[in-house]
Specification:
Order of helices and strands: HEHEHH
Radius of gyration: 15 Å
Number of strands: 2
Number of domains: 1
Helix content: 25-40%
Number of helices: 4
Oligomer: single chain
Strand order of the largest sheet: 1-2
Distance between the termini: 31 Å
Length: 92
Amino acid sequence: PTQKPAEVVRRLVRGLSYPGSIVLDFFAGSGTTGKVCIEENRHSILVDNDPMFEKYFEKHLKKLSDKHKNKFEIVKNPTSEFFNHKNKQVTI
């Protein structure tokens, strides 16, 4: 991943969202956006197709203070079955 400095992400999060809002990052990589969102009282949805994503993100989560430790959940492959239907009609 191309890890972005947390302070750059923090400026974007503060400038483009409000406390309590949801920030969506489809290229989550190292999880910097998620870490910043937790610290800035935003919700975040992080998506990445790299299986190493979890390890990078866990590295960032370990740096969070104790008051933020339980504010995240990792969901593995929530849509993989949905997108693996080949030649089948899928109604959304």
